[in-house]
Amino acid sequence: MKARIPTLLILIVSMVLGMLVTLLVGPLPPNARIQHLLVLLLVLLLLATFTQRMLPKPRPRRRTITVIKCLSCDMRLERDFREGDYVFKRVGKCRCGGELYIDMIYDIES
Ligand SMILES: [Zn+2]
């Protein structure tokens, strides 16, 4: 599939170039010139749509956040997710002496 795209693109581009040359220097009656131009525009439009579809969409970068809370006070802190994190996991002691636990793990676009 991927190998076919450049061939197709080259084909379309050379078609466009050929039409452009015919349009500019070819012996065409005035009526045919307008038709030629319309077809050329249509091909260009198709080409634009085609290339836009073929280009990979940029993936939004994601970040996983771990929210840590204290069982005894309202201390709350956020840090990047680490392997082994899970909700309700005990992760240490708070300054107040209470136990710290993971309250939430969520994903954000960054
Ligand atoms: Zn605390």
Task: Provide a brief overview of the structure.
The protein is an alpha+beta fold. It has helices at residues 4-25, 30-54; strands at residues 62-70, 76-80, 90-93, 99-109. It has 2 helices and 4 strands; from the N terminus they run ααββββ.
Number of domains: 2
Order of helices and strands: HHEEEE
Give the biggest beta sheet. Answer: 4 strands, antiparallel
Number of strands: 4
As a whole number of angstroms, the C-alpha radius of gyration is 30 Å
Shape verdict:
rod-shaped
**Major β-sheet strand ordering:** 2-1-4-3
Count of alpha and pi helical runs? 2
| Structural category | alpha+beta
Ligands bound to this protein structure? zinc ion
Mean pLDDT: 85
Estimate percent helicity.
40-55%
Quaternary structure type: single chain
Low-confidence stretches: none
Distance between the termini: 32 Å
Strand proportion, as a percent range, falls in 25-35%
Features:
4-stranded antiparallel sheet, binds zinc ion, alpha+beta, 2 helices, 110 residues, 43% helix, 2 domains, single chain
What would you note in describing this structure?
The chain is an alpha+beta fold and 110 residues long. The protein contains two helices and four strands; from the N terminus they run H-H-E-E-E-E. It has helices at residues 4-25, 30-54, and strands at 62-70, 76-80, 90-93, 99-109. It has a four-stranded antiparallel beta sheet, with no helix packed on it. Strand 3 (90-93) and strand 4 form a beta hairpin. Helix 1 packs antiparallel against helix 2 (30-54). The radius of gyration is 30 Å and the shape is rod-shaped. The two termini are 32 Å apart. 3% of the residues are buried.
